Amino acid sequence: MIPLTAAMSASKSGGNLWIASLAAAVVTAVVAAVMVFTVGMPVVPALLGLLIGAAPILGYDLARGGFGSNWKPVIAGIIGNILFVAAIFLPAESFGIIVAGVGLLSTLIIWPIVVGAMSPSHSIGKLWIASLLGLIIGLAVVSAVWGQDPDSWLKTAGILFFACWGGTVGAALSSWSK
């Protein structure tokens, strides 16, 4: 762990693209894993669902050594995932595909707008492209490793999806910062 933190703090300004992607993916995957495996609790998955929006930003800040220097994008990431969390708690029996569609649209449209508006070093358009690429890569990875019984590994698919999305957004945050 110490060499990883030393490598992360060595690149302060723009940062290393790979380390930023890895840090954002790991932070997002950890938050997603805790969210997915605490489903029986009433409030914890909702709070962690909000934190998924901030996880790539926290990973990017961790990688560039500026953790805690600017909290506006982190708060914006949380705000950008409110509709995602609301979609998760809609009853899937009644709404079915609408739940997935609203969650994906929230991640694709609302999250980049809110984060881009609150972050002085990232544009809304580039964040939208990064979020779109992350969604495509996440869906491609989940589709590629889809098993014979998709219900048995749905939690793992959620973790993989969010790790891919967070890693892609973290790499874009690192490479496209002003």
3D structure, described in words:
The chain is mostly helical and 178 residues long. It has one domain (2-175). Helices cover 76% and strands 0% of the residues. α3 (44-64) runs antiparallel to α4 (72-80), α5 (82-88) packs antiparallel against α7 (97-118) and α8 (124-144) packs antiparallel against α9. It is globular and about 45 Å long. The model is unreliable at 1-13 (pLDDT under 50).
By helix and strand content, what is the structural category? mainly alpha
Give a quick account of the main beta sheet: strands, pairing sense, barrel closure.
Answer: none
Low-confidence stretches: 1-13
Strand share of the residues? under 5%
Distance between the termini: 29 Å
Total of domains: 1
Instruction: List the total number of helices.
Output: 9
Task: List strands and helices in order, with pairings.
Elements: H1 2-10, H2 17-37, H3 44-64, H4 72-80, H5 82-88, H6 92-95, H7 97-118, H8 124-144, H9 154-175
Helix pairs in contact: 2-3, 2-9, 3-4, 3-5, 3-9, 4-7, 5-7, 7-8, 8-9
Q: Gist?
A:
With 178 residues, the protein is an all-alpha fold. The protein has helices at 2-10, 17-37, 44-64, 72-80, 82-88, 92-95, 97-118, 124-144, 154-175. It has one domain.
